[in-house]
Amino acid sequence: MTDEKSTKRDLAEKLLQKGKYDEAIVLLEDIHQESPDEDPVLLMLAWAYYDSGKTGQAEKCLTILFDRELERKVFTGFAFDELVRLYKQKKDFPNLVNICERAVAAQPDDVGLLTELGNAYLQAGQADRARLTYEKLIAMEDDNPAFYCLWGEALFAAGLNKESEDAYRKAGQLDPDQLDSYYFRIAVLFQKADNHQEARRLLNKCLNLNPSSPLYYCSLGDSLIGLGKLQDAINAYNQAVEFDRADADAYYNRLGNSLMKTGNFSEAVAAFQTAIRLEPLPIYYLNLSSAYRKMGLDHEADQTIGKADKIH
Q1: Which of 310, 231, 274 is nearest to 287 (CA)?
Q2: Residues 6+ apart with CB under 8 A from 117
Q3: Domains of the chain
Q4: At what angle do helices 265-278 and 248-261 cross, to 10 degrees?
Q5: What pLDDT, in 10s, does the model give residues 57-109?
Q6: If you placed Cys at 172, which of 8, 48, 182, 250 could pair as Cys (CB 3.0 to 4.6 Å)?
Q7: DSSP 107
Q8: Global pTM value
């Protein structure tokens, strides 16, 4: 790099540090036009565009760098990582899948790239392709419980619930000390799918293996609420408090939020009131106010908001 270009680059760095992105971009574009093969300059330009809010231009710069990475014998993957981050932020899953497929085509046995590809397929709603990708990973490392969990998630997304549970159980066989955590993962998937009957069954398995986990009791309570078993749900949350009194206020606030989601507003009021008695945090008052508002009790809601405003 010539002295003039070095001076321009140093000045561009200083401008970037001061947040003067447009001025830095002008200098970096000049250097790039003079020396289009200099990757560090192109990378700086990409960051300058990104920080200035011009993500489309940043993407173009990173794509050029990514194309160059694919042509090299050693795949550094730096531009790839930045593009993955960018596409995830934008929820641009078609382009995310595209770059992951291209990276895997260049490095077909790279575990990290295959994992990223499987995740991209899953986020793009291509569950079967995700499943096949994770099966390839398992064929490469059949003793890795993390891959069985990924496979299980893809199987669940594909509607293969029994096979999904078997995959998580296999992960637990490989890591028996954490078997309860693997049951919990698939229980959460069932909860997200509003299948609270199956979630309850699996959460009970979790508690049989780890009967002192407040998290499992709270999650069981959430599924019991989903099943309309409110008193059983409250009992489950009370059990969580028995094992962790220090965070009791947070558990009752969570209980209130779960009850709100299912329209059980009067029960939510009671839960939020309990949380406030334990720890009068502003967020708890705001949640209580929302519950009152849902019940049509605007006066009580306004009074509660006033109490929240007085807390500093």
Answers
A1: 274
A2: 97, 100, 101, 103, 104, 133
A3: 1-72 (1.25.40.10), 259-312 (1.25.40)
A4: 160
A5: 999 999 999 999 998 877 888 899 999 999 999 999 999 999 999 999 999 99
A6: 182
A7: S
A8: 0.87
